[in-house]
Design brief:
The structure is a homotetramer. Chain A is α/β, with parallel strands linked by helices. Chain A has two domains: 75 residues, 2-Layer Sandwich (Alpha-Beta Plaits), CATH 3.30.70; 195 residues, 3-Layer(aba) Sandwich (Rossmann fold). Chain A is 33% helix and 30% strand. Chain A has eight helices and 13 strands. In chain A, α1 packs antiparallel against α2. Chain A is globular and about 60 Å long. Chains in contact: A-B, A-C, A-D, B-C, B-D, C-D. At the A-D interface, α1 and β2 of A face α1 and β2 of D. β2 of chain A pairs antiparallel with β2 of chain D, so a sheet runs across the interface.
Chain lengths: 276, 276, 276, 276
């Protein structure tokens, strides 16, 4: 059985030696080990994938006793994670995730889809995923947030995936899900923050458009970036065509960002990501 | 002999027919014809590369008589254009252009290099290009501008190329060279406008860095974009390493933008470029 | 109403003038005109998008009378084209096209899906597309081909799209659909022709993997290339992970290639494509 | 002082622990640690960058005593490596490396340039690098090889860089420099092996062209790939224009491959590279 050990700690000498020795003493076999020191903040990150048999609590206790008191240590097994997808009207990101889910490529269970519109109910239910519509017409701001939270809390989820969810989540909501909300931003952040980035990009006459997957913090579009990519365009694109072309890079970049999260490859520190 | 006809005009019916018929009546042979209509502004752009013998003034007069009174018509032959390169201390963009010049790949004569420092004199003179240093310590702002203009006016140049020229050109200077100044911006505009974009990008934790070649207008970093590209980076890059990695994309993007200009492929309209 | 005129002809002087003048004489308005001359073969290609009212046969006859006797002239309106998708077991390319179809992004009607297996029936029928399985166990080679042709001939289709159809189509079949079959090859042709290109790529230790959409001719993998793209990989990828990562570039490149075909942007000549 | 420890060894349990503990026992501080296990060959690779004071032989002996008898262990300091560049007539790769050398970006000393022609003597000497021409007209095959070796042996070099050296090196020559010769191949290997890949690519109608930096083994174009990249092209490119455009990707890919080698980031195993 394979497990992944994640350690984020103030840097001190001998960290790799201590961790590796503890693993070795239990006859655990390191298959992949990545390590990074943020020299600006003197902070240490380590991701170790190992095989072998060990009781989680035993290993964690031993590591805690041996490492820095402020070290954050977690141990992940290979069980599928659970996610909920939030979306609005566009089908490309949701559909792409549903297809990956269906083929078994997405190492996660999609527990539910939540939207502020009914448009994507049919698509979601085609793939037998429960769909919840919490509209913003009949619900006040507070009711909306409350109902969303209620639905989410019915499931035990690891990540919320904003698959073109076109509504700003209030800080009170976001605060429940620190580094658990992954968004696709339809631009290469930090350019074109805010509404209709394709129109902004068109007006500026840019020659490429991009997409950014990132964690959502309180400030819209300001969370830690996970991954980004672009496609080249030219003067023949209207902003609607830019938007259409942008969908391809959006869905790929969102899926890549989610995959990295599901594989426990991401550390968040100082509003940035370290990705192994 | 090959020539390139460039027409930018309010759109009216029959423009292609009129132009093509005039060329045909003189037994000129169209080798490549590109056309674009900006439907937002109802404006027409056409670039026609043709072979055959014709007196320029004859053709231009005939076209002027036939087309819209506000049409801008120009005729380019295949003679090498003349450029002056402005630079500061970094050698990668200047050196790249000097090498392309030496191999004959750059379809232009580099008439001179002008800098605010002495650092690149040696490199420039290695390649036998006259080097002028107009420093900003002994020269006042007005003297600096005046001396720069004097040097430039000694040569008849088609383009000024800012090859990492790290000083803002004042509007009074820029106004002499409408759509003739090509800059390399060390970022994918419009992100990270202003000083030290690599430090900005590092602090934001971006996963790619880019470069943009663009014409310089009065507003810094706001001129029409010619071409852009990016490279992917990760958390292991310090901002100095990002800057170092960025040099590769800077020099390539500047050379590409300049090449497009030298081949008479660019129209500027509404602060954007149409590139054929 | 907008139409697209496609002309492929031995090059002669005055072609653009003749065509544009005929269009102008009928008060048709050229919105986009692209032209290319293959100087190696002295062959002319022109794609003209125009608006205005004209009877197709009238315009075509006038053009035929005016142009070279070997000129190939066709006129396309903006009606949706019809396609049939062929697939085997993998869902990513089929699913991607079904989603684009559902959202209205794909400017085509998917008339049917045909497969040699039952695996993708459920997916296809979720999206209400008729699914036909012609297996290769109970059918002889001749029966298989015959049944495929029968199904296809029930519909009037413009293109057959091989969305990871993992069976070689015999020349007798292909000959019915000259430049009408679009395949996605899971590699950047011409590297790794044949079976399991990901295993081949892994064994060679390549640092990027690609995909190629192309028309299918008699020789497998040798038809005219439409579009290609790549993603970067590294030593941590097993060939199975390369294959998984490759799916993203496969589906995007197939969709791009099909889009170009559906928009009547592709000429095929001398086993290559000219794409406007 | 920083050093880099490289270990390539049959995989056994506890390797990371053993190495890290030895480093820790000498109060050495690991700044970056990368590790990979090739599960196909059960082989372990580790690159550890550390700071602190230690006598090289002491550390190496201790590691050798502790690790697998077949483990290959080496220790690199941060001293500049020495390289010799081989080239023929094209200036873009040589010039690019000379510029990087001049700016201090290239962490290496260029000891000499060797060519089979005189064409690039002037460029090389502009940058004060000794230039040796060993022509193939007046020298027999054996003399040519002998003279090349003699020149190279005057210097102590870490790598030979083939910067568009258009002559096949015989196995007897290559055998002297196992994993020390870095070539730029003007294609994305393994496509278009052999002469004039741009003409081959043109004839095949490809939509992108690439470049590959790789180590040279006995078989031409078959050595371990270091890095690859591509640029997109279209039907308007003649093969000469493809070649011209290809230069940009060639020089960047060669410089990237060399940089990885100079930073001691590359392991070669089973005709592939592992790059940390």
């Amino acid at each position: 059985m394979k497990k992944t050990l994640l350690i984020s700690s103030p840097d001190t000498q001998g960290l790799v030696a201590k961790v590796a020795s503890i693993l070795y003493s239990h006859h655990l076999n390191i298959e992949k080990n990545d390590e990074h020191v943020d020299l600006e903040h003197n902070h240490f990150f380590m991701r170790t994938k190992f095989s072998g048999e060990i009781e989680d609590s035993l290993l964690l206790n031993e590591l805690k006793a041996s490492l820095h008191p402020q070290a954050q240590i977690s141990l992940k097994n290979e069980e599928k994670k659970s996610i909920i997808i939030l979306c609005t009207k566009e089908n490309h990101c949701l559909g792409d995730l549903l297809l990956r889910h269906q083929s078994g490529e997405l190492n996660a269970e999609i527990k539910a889809v939540i939207s502020n519109y009914e448009d994507l109910r049919d698509l979601s239910e085609k793939f037998e995923i429960p769909y919840f519509c919490v509209d913003t017409l009949t619900n006040s701001r507070e009711e909306h947030e409350q109902k969303m939270l209620e639905i989410i809390q019915r499931f035990e989820v690891d990540y919320l995936v904003l698959a073109k969810y076109m509504r700003i989540l209030p800080p009170s909501f976001v605060s429940h899900f620190q580094n658990q909300i992954i968004n696709i931003h339809h631009s290469f952040l930090p350019a074109f923050i805010g509404a209709n980035p394709y129109k902004q990009a068109y007006d500026r006459g840019v020659k490429m458009i991009g997409a950014t997957s990132h964690f959502v913090n309180n400030d819209l579009d300001e969370g830690p970036i996970i991954t980004q990519d672009i496609i080249h365009i030219n003067h023949t694109y209207s902003w609607q065509e830019m938007q259409k072309a942008g969908r391809d890079v959006e869905k790929i970049v969102l899926a890549r960002g989610l995959k990295l999260a599901l594989e426990d490859r991401i550390f968040v520190f100082a509003n940035k990501t370290i990705i192994f």
